[in-house]
Amino acid sequence: MKGPPKADMTTIHDLSQSQRGIDLNCDFGESYGVYTFGQDTELLAHVTSVNIACGFHAGDPHAMREAVYRAAEAGAAIGAHPGLPDRLGFGRREMAVSAQEVFDMTLYQIGALDAFVRAAGVSLRHVKPHGALYHMAGRSEELADAFVRAVSVFDPSLIIYGQWGSELLTAANKHNMQSASEIFADRSYQADGTLTPRNRQGATLASAEEALLQTLSIITTGTARTIEGKEIVIQGDTVCLHGDGQRAGEFAAALRKGLEAAGIALQPPTPRR
Is the pTM of this model over 0.85? Predict the structure, then answer.
C-alpha cells in the first residue's frame, strides 16, 4: 500500500459520511458441499451489501444460487467475491500467480456468479477480491491492474471495493472505474495502514464494542488507532465485517444499531449505469 489515494480518484467518498451514509458489507455464501461456514442468516438482517464467494476459495453452484436468491429477497446489494483457487487455505494463502492468471480467474468467477444474479432478476453491483488476492492486488500495481481490467471488460459500471490507500483504488481510477474505499470493523490496523496479519495477537478485535468504536472513529474523524497505539488517517465508503467470525452476527447487529444511533444512514453505493 502506498498511502491515501490521489484526490482525483473516482471514489464515492466526496461527501461526509453523515451526509451520504455508509455501506456495511460482509462476505457471504462461503459454504460448499457438506461444509457450512459463516453466519449468513444473522448477517443478512443487518448488512446492506454482500460479497458472494464464486466457487474458488469457497462456494459452489448450489451455494452461489442460494446466496444470490437470499440476498435478492432481503434487498442487499450483491457483489462478486472472487478469490484464489485454494479451498484448503480458504483463499487466505498467497500464491505465485501471474497478472494474466489474475485476469482470467477474476473474469471467470464474475461470470459464474452473474449467471445466478441474472436468473434471480437482479443486477451485480460490485466486485471485491477475497483474502490473499485482495492483499496481493492491494500491494501490486500489476495484479491490481489485471483485476480491474477483468472487471472493466465484464461490466465497466461495476464498483471496485478496495482497501483505503491500495493499488486497487489507483487502478480503478486509471481505468475510469467507480470504486469504494473499504474500512474494516473487526480487524486491527498497523502503522502503514495495512491490516494486522491474522497470525499476530490482536489482529481480530475481541468485542462488538471495539468494532463499533473503531468504525465510528474512522467515519467521524477519518482516523483509526493502530495496534501499536498510534493514530493513522483512514477514510471509507464501505465497512467490511468478516462473515466467518465466531460472533459475526452479534458484531453486525451492534454495528448497525450503533451507526444508526449516531445518525449515520446505512446504504450501499450506487453504481453509475
Answer: yes
